[in-house]
Specification:
342 residues, alpha/beta, 434 Repressor (Amino-terminal Domain), Rossmann fold, six-stranded parallel beta sheet, three-stranded parallel beta sheet, 11 strands, elongated, DNA binding, transcription, Peripla_BP_I, DNA-binding
Length: 342
């Protein structure tokens, strides 16, 4: 019976070859004669040898893996991010380790521990403390995905503030709405904080007094349904509800229709992201399209480039967004599917 404890040196002795030859056969690299390859494979099969990947990583100074850190994995946004990230990692031959920090009291410690097992790491902005990012960046390449600039790690993001300013201004100017409400918690993530800032900037740019504060809820559809129940239950309902993401907006839409309200006649609703469902609901959702999958792909490219010693731009990368005009804001159904870049 084979033993998982057998070492590469023992396999080399049993096969009558060098350790380097065993490594070349087990890794599928280099030139090895068929006779030597057969002897090594026979010894591996007979004794149940499994290569020590950790040992190989230590010898090579690499783990062959990159880390991806999110607060959670629910919803289409994170699914798109993972697909974009993996598309680049797979091409480079690196495996992906994913850590979710949601409800973890030791999330910073867990992220630092992961940093010992990967060659580089991408973190969603605001997921861990700035000091943790700094400590990680001292040992491995680190790239932040979304959020604001960081002194020790480049950031891949969109300009959330300008994008939300453009969307809110569309409601204020093109539709003449004034009683708008922002739904989302600015303290919940850097992205939402920037979108709230853009919402306020649109009001101030027109010299109009903005709302006192946002409706602070989570970022999932049930949270949007609850927000709609709070905002739409009385006669003083808002003219429009500007949501921090599409999941919230879809929940608000369900809540509004459940109360017998017509969208956009009774209340306009907008989102952010342009998730696949945004174009399929009735009425289709006015939103901001951000290239979610490409954001993650670009973050993966930057961290893999840094792992290979080719460096990464310190200032990071800002990708463009588009204002997507659909019927939920009050525009006609014959309006173009996409508006101007923001």
């Amino acid at each position: 019976m084979g033993s998982s404890r057998i070492t590469v040196r023992e396999i080399a002795r049993l096969a009558g070859v060098s350790v380097a030859t065993v490594s070349r056969v087990s890794n599928g690299t280099g030139q090895v004669s068929e006779e030597m390859r057969r002897r090594v494979l026979d010894a591996i099969e007979k004794h149940g040898y499994r290569p020590d990947h950790l040992g190989r990583a230590l010898a090579a100074g690499r783990h062959g893996a990159v880390g991806l850190v999110f607060p959670g994995l629910s919803g289409p946004y994170f699914a798109e991010l993972i697909q974009g990230f993996e598309s680049e990692a797979v091409q480079s031959g690196a495996s992906v380790h994913i850590l979710c920090t949601h409800l973890r009291s030791d999330s910073d410690a867990q992220v630092l521990e992961m940093g010992r097992r990967v060659d580089g790491m991408v973190l969603l902005g605001g997921t861990v403390a700035d000091e943790t990012v700094r400590r990680l960046a001292e040992t491995i390449p680190v790239v932040l995905l979304a959020g604001s600039g960081h002194e020790t790690a480049p950031v891949v993001r969109v300009d959330n503030t300008a994008a939300m300013t453009g969307l809110t201004r569309h409601l204020l100017v093109e539709h003449g709405l004034r009683r708008l409400v922002f739904v989302g918690d600015p303290e919940g993530s850097p992205d939402v904080g920037q979108r709230w800032a853009g919402f306020l900037a649109a009001y101030r740019g027109l010299g109009v007094l903005p709302p006192v504060g946002p409706v602070r809820v989570g970022m999932q559809q049930p949270d949007g349904v609850l927000a709609a129940g709070h905002l739409l239950r009385g006669p003083e309902r808002p003219d429009g509800i500007v949501c921090a993401n599409d999941e919230l907006a879809l929940g608000v839409l369900v809540g509004a229709l459940g109360r017998g309200l017509l969208v956009p006649r009774d209340v306009a609703i907008t989102g952010f992201d342009d998730a696949p469902m945004a174009a399929l609901v009735s009425p289709p959702l006015t939103t901001v399209r951000q290239p979610v999958r490409e954001l993650a792909a670009e973050a993966a490219r930057l961290v893999l480039r840094a792992v290979d010693g080719r460096g990464a731009p310190v200032e990071g990368v800002v990708l463009p967004t588009d204002l997507v005009i659909r019927a939920s804001c009050g525009c006609g159904t014959d309006a173009p599917a996409t508006g101007q870049p923001i």
